[in-house]
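User: Please predict the structure of the protein below. I'd like the answer in structure-token form so I can feed it into my own downstream comparison script.

Assistant: Understood. Taking the following sequence of 395 residues as input:
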Amino acid sequence: MTFPWWKKIVKKFLKWLAYIAAALIFVLTAVAGLTQTPFFRDKLRTLALEHLDSLLLAEVHLGEIHGNLISGFSIDSVSIKVQSDFLLHTERIDLRYDLFQILSQRISVSNLTMVHPQITLLRGGDGLWNFERMIRPMPDDSTSSPFPWTVSVDRFEIKDGTVQLVDSATLAESDHEQGDPYFVEYHNFATRDLNLILAPVLVSPAEKRAVISSLSFVSDQPDVHLQKLSGTLLVTSKEASVEDLAIQTARSKLTLDASLKGVDLLRGFTLAELKTKPVELSLQMFPVDLNELKRFIQQVEFLDGTVVASLEAGGTFGKLDVKHLDLKHRGSELYFAALVSNLHEPEKLLLDVKCRGSKIFYDDVRALMPSMDLPDYDSLGMAKMEFDFDGAPLD
């Protein structure tokens, strides 16, 4: 029995396809083997350094390269030195990727790991950061355009890193107050034992997304230990959002979901433009140690103790409906609902607040604000509280 003519063609095509696949596997195997030779790795290292030298005004060091060009490689002892200070020094960088995604203008990385990196961000008296200094100036007639490729990283990891930031320009300003070491100095701080996992990360012309699986670090001054931070960050040309953000320390825990729609944060904006933009916000604190919180927000340094809180709000940026704000401190409980108007014009801010079903123990008030030197009315015991406030805040 003979096959119809089309079956013969299909059979020959499949045979040719098998031959091509076998040849391709052979070529890739040969290339992978070639790229593992010491000669090729040394040549690749030399070419990489030459290319980096054409782009950067920095001293770049690349250690020995392991692996192959097809699936990925590792580099020992990578460093970038700008002027007399190191911007980056890491014990090892591991990189695994899908080379064939380049054909579709996509950089696809399955794993990028930095082992024991030391990252130092320095801003000089002239206002320039070291990462700005290291980029060679482009010709005056060159035009910049958005990077059209998509970059996806299935897993980005930092293992046992340190990060230091020193903003010398701000620290040298005459009106910059010398900070109390109890509080975070945002212009001069350092973290150690930093561990970070992002899985995955996507950067494209239309979308920027990062899933923070875990982030932890230790700060010695002030004494803060972030045990875990996780959540999903998203920015597109139409919205920005934070989903399932969870922050936990030894003494505090909070979760946050928030979104702002109808705005492109990457292109910049003004407060006035946000007036009609939809906003959603959900915040849960269970509990938050105020002594720890004021290390980051010095303006609440008059508060003490711990607070349990729940906040739900929505509407627009210019007219935010606070559905409920519940606060609990020791035995006291406060329940609020409010309409916050004119956030887009802070000088015209208006509050319409309703407090219902609340109760206060005066001793809790004194414990919450010990620095206020409030009179002793503890004998009053528990007091019920209800009030309305409609107007502009005094402070």
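That's the full token string. The longest strand covers residues 188-203.
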